[in-house]
Write a structure and sequence with these properties.
3-stranded parallel β-sheet; alpha/beta; single chain
């Protein structure tokens, strides 16, 4: 079974460090950040390329319940879980 983790604040500092630690251990990464572009094009892309794991970034509005539900629905529907 593949392991996956969802991490918020994953473009800088502690959040990015945690994402890298999980990537080193072979986890699939689902990364959230207020800065969608940086999360997708930098954090997710770089960690995926560096560690050979699946990584996807999301722009998050953490206090927006519908946005959060959409993200988790998308995560649930990823082909890696099929």
């Amino acid at each position: 079974m593949e392991k996956s983790v969802f991490i918020t604040g994953a473009t800088v500092n502690t959040g990015l460090g945690i994402a890298e630690k999980f990537a080193k251990e072979g986890y699939n990464l689902f990364l959230g950040s207020r800065n969608a572009e940086k999360c997708r094009k930098k954090s997710a892309k770089e960690l995926s390329e560096k560690y050979g794991v699946y990584a996807k970034g999301y722009g998050m509005k953490i206090f927006d319940e519908e946005n959060t539900k959409e993200i988790f629905t998308d995560i649930k529907n990823q082909r890696i879980f099929s």
